[in-house]
Design goal:
The chain is α/β, with parallel strands linked by helices. The chain is 41% helix and 18% strand. Strands 1, 2, 3, 4, 5, 6, 7 and 8 form an 8-stranded mixed sheet that branches. Helix 18 packs antiparallel against helix 19. The radius of gyration is 25 Å and the shape is globular.
């Protein structure tokens, strides 16, 4: 089998500079993760523990199988906003009783677990992933409901949570809620719409309206336990299916449920045992360019993430700015599309469209390794039909029905983001390296375009052009676009599913491939791709 040849010189200045810069970016990312892990801070953590409660990540750890990995999603949600990093919600994929599940839980140390706008968006993304991949959904429930001052950004989109939970159930995918504390008002429908409900004695409180609201609405006097306590729901209302004595017992009962759900994967699974790469993944730190103007050969990345570093390249001499080919990761067959020198020309676009069709013909998932400045512009390429050819590629990506996984390992600019399966084109999972940037175009180019348009406007109106104001505008725009294209900013907006250390790429893709094989892995052979403009 063809093996990627090692062309990396660890002694080079470029390698050393890249590695040093990547390690710094990873350290900065780790600082932000620490903020998310710290929840509401020492004061609120201490108060939470004084009530005899575990923290959300401790609950998840007890729920998971021993030594099972947990792929946390969107940990930097709300980064750069007035809301806490992580948005007060923890979501991710883990294994419970041998079953891969989507797990979601509010952090009750952050505003009492109340849902803010970013938290709602993060929860909905978790449900979207669960639906696409047929993942059983486990909610670790303890929330004060909506963050009321922001209700206008929460109420309408938040209703989709209950829609999606029932959608999963209708698909035959089990859903479960383990209630650790309050689940009130609209939040009461979280357990109400779950297939299985575990409640904890003297802990769980589930009601549409608490005692104060009931008093105001009906004049009735009541208390938490008689109105919505675990024992009442277990003995009287029937909402609780399992009655636990404490948090550990509630998690035990939740695992007991998962042991009996008999959930089967529909995908074929790995075709082999999965062999580690021959090339050293540690070297990925020196391969990835922090200066995105400096290209790097994606084959050197591929050789460090695929099984045995084996890669069957497709059309290697045609359209060399896009590398395509077949490989395996942890035994799962994949097709890879990886940008080489950034720009997508006519040939690259046609090559990509053909390769995507071939992957669909043989039911093989696709991995997109982004590092693109977009499709080529200019008179020559417009006359050669770059719009038509680029559209073929985007058409193929849009209508491909095999699972797509995307890694942004550099730049993701313009329509290249679309052709290389960015967020708008629905990859099952999308992760970003810390050095990556995403925008309509580079900061200098965008500011330059705005400057040219302003200059032309002034000339057409016969008025003098203010060079000083233009220079100030360009500097301001460049700073804004640079800041808004950075990986933490994009991750904070949930335009990816998380920032990952490049050295973890193989592991993350292995988990992701196992996840997508929970559902069918089937291409669009025999059903067509729509009209390709020839």
């Amino acid at each position: 089998m063809p093996v990627v040849h090692d062309e990396i010189d660890e002694r080079s200045e470029v390698f050393a500079a890249n590695r040093s810069a990547l390690l710094q970016l990873i350290a900065e990312h780790d600082e932000q993760l620490a903020l998310a892990n710290a929840g509401g801070g020492e004061k609120y953590i201490a108060r939470h523990r004084s009530r005899g409660k575990m923290l959300i990540r401790e609950r998840i750890e007890y729920l998971l199988d021993p030594d099972a990995p947990f792929l946390e999603l969107s940990p930097l949600a709300a980064w750069g906003t007035d809301f806490p990093v992580g948005a007060g919600v923890v979501t991710g994929i883990g294994v419970v009783e041998g079953v891969e599940c989507m797990i979601s839980g509010s952090d009750a140390t952050v505003r009492g677990g109340a849902s803010g706008p970013a938290g709602v968006k993060k929860s909905l993304r978790a449900l979207e992933i669960a639906i696409e991949n047929r993942l059983p959904f486990i909610s670790l429930t303890e929330s004060g409901g909506a963050d009321l001052p922001h209700q206008s950004d929460i109420f309408i989109p938040g209703g989709q949570t209950f829609h999606d939970i029932t959608t999963l159930s209708a698909m035959g995918v089990p859903t479960m809620s383990i209630v650790f504390g309050n689940s009130t008002a609209g939040g009461a429908y979280q357990p109400g719409m779950s297939d299985y409900v575990v409640m904890i004695d003297k802990r769980s409180k589930v009601f549409l309206g608490g005692p104060p609201l009931v008093k105001m609405a009906t004049g009735e006097e009541s208390d938490d336990e008689s109105l919505g306590g675990a024992e009442m729901h277990a003995r009287v209302s029937g909402l609780a299916d399992y009655f636990a004595t404490d948090e550990i017992d509630g998690i035990r009962l939740g695992r007991q449920v998962m042991r009996r759900i008999n959930h089967r994967k529909l995908g074929p699974g790995p075709s082999g045992p999965g062999r580690p790469p021959r090339l050293d993944p540690e070297q990925l730190l020196g391969i990835a360019s922090v200066d995105l103007r400096v290209p790097f050969d994606p084959r050197q990345v591929i050789g460090r993430i695929v099984d045995d570093s084996e890669f069957d390249e497709f059309k290697p001499l045609y359209g060399p700015s896009l590398v395509t080919g077949f490989a395996e990761i942890h035994g799962f067959p994949i097709g890879i599309l990886a940008n080489h020198r950034g720009v997508l020309f006519n040939e690259e676009s046609e090559k990509a469209a053909q390769f995507i069709q071939l992957a669909n013909q043989i039911d093989t998932p696709l991995v997109f390794l982004q590092n693109t400045t977009g499709y080529m512009v200019g008179k020559e390429y417009e006359q050669r039909g770059i719009i038509k050819d680029g559209s073929k590629m985007i058409n193929a990506v849009t209508n491909s029905s095999v699972p797509h996984l995307t890694i942004n390992m550099g730049s993701s600019y313009g329509a290249g983001n679309y052709g290389m399966c960015g967020r708008p084109f629905g990859p099952r999972l999308l992760f970003t390296w810390p050095n990556a940037k995403t925008a309509v175009m580079g900061p200098t180019q965008l500011a330059g375009v705005m400057s040219i348009v302003s200059r032309q406007s002034a000339e057409s109106m016969g008025r003098p052009f203010d060079e000083e104001a233009d220079a100030s505008m360009r500097a301001m725009v460049e700073e804004q676009i640079e800041r808004e294209s950075l990986a933490p900013f994009m991750s904070g907006k949930l335009y990816d599913d998380g920032i990952i250390d490049p050295r973890d790429t193989r592991t993350v893709l292995g988990i992701a491939l196992s996840v997508v094989h929970t559902n069918e892995v089937r291409g669009r052979h025999g059903t067509g791709f729509g009209v390709f403009r020839m």
